[in-house]
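Morning!

This is the sequence you dropped in the shared folder:
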Amino acid sequence: MISKETFIKTMERLENLNKRMEAADNAMHDLCEDFGSFYICDAFNITTNLLSEIFNDKENDWLGYFIWERDWLHKFELGDIVIGGYSVVIKNWGDVYDFLISEMRD
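The structure's back. Tokens below.
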């Protein structure tokens, strides 16, 4: 099992990498409007697939939801996830870790 501290650091590093790749992509578009795209998905896919395996999260893909659909948690709002009539509180990657642990299936 991955520790909470390592998970948090990994997610923070992935988000930082995402920001840097977006900056490089924007810079290339500024140089040439016909530039296609600069985005290396493998770094994210390899890591998120591994984490999904660790948390047994392949079916629900909560991690993908928090990253892509909720923009690295920046767009997550209370009420986005309701389980058993209660809104799940997610404020940071530590909360995501706790949530993923609570949702692990055998």
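Headline: The mean pLDDT is 92.

More detail when I'm at my desk.
O.
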